[in-house]
Amino acid sequence: MDGPFDAMDTRDVDYVLGQIAKRLSSRFTGVFGPETVERYVFESYMYLHRTVRLQAHLPALTENFATERLTALAQVEGSIDKPVPEVLFLCAYNAGRSQLAAALADRYAQGRVHVRCAGSHPADGLDQNVFEALGEWGIDINRAYPKPLTPDVLGASDVIVTMGCGDACPVLAGKRYLDWDIPDPAGRDLPFVRTVRDDIDARVRALVDDLTLTMG
């Protein structure tokens, strides 16, 4: 796609989203009907359209986000199994702490835990120093983007780790919650972000060890 997604007229957007819905309908055959898939695709687009900075990336991000949400919904409904524990990292903007935690958990879990992250008020992009701090450890998060918290993803999670989203982070019965008191790295310099990274790193290592021993 040559130009920004938001420069397209409504018919073009509908066509692109319709093509995404067709692909995902095929992927989720026997799990969800085409109407449910289409609704999730269009809804996911609307969620991201409000916040994503690089609108030209919206088609790919919409497909990714809709896939995550449909997978989570299928897990909640028992249509597909959870092969590994599901952990969700939450912060206010999904631009710093929760992204750091998700990237580090992915590294240490090596497929033994499935990791998601979201924000109660997602930003339009990740903090640059978060990219830098993780890049120093050889972790590439160039494909990461802030995502809103949705009921399907929340419902599919076994463990929910909150970091500074306060009352905006909903509480569901039967879920294991952890609240990590970690300062917000937004707008801070790289040395400060490194200290946040190191704090989260120690906590994530312990959590992954715990999950793989007790739930894996």
TrEMBL record:
> Where are the membrane-spanning stretches?
none
Give all residue intervals belonging to the Phosphotyrosine protein phosphatase I domain: 85-210
> Do you know which CDD domains this protein is assigned to?
LMWP_ArsC
Spell out the SMART domains in the cross-references: LMWPc
The answer, when asked if Lipid biosynthesis is one of the entry's keywords, is no
What Pfam families does the database record attribute to this sequence? LMWPc (PF01451), Phosphatase-like_N (PF21234)
Which UniProt keyword terms apply here? Arsenical resistance
InterPro entries tied to this protein: Phosphatase-like_N (IPR048716), Ptyr_pPase (IPR023485), Ptyr_pPase_sf (IPR036196)
The biological processes this protein is annotated with in GO are:
response to arsenic-containing substance
- What name is this protein filed under? Phosphatase
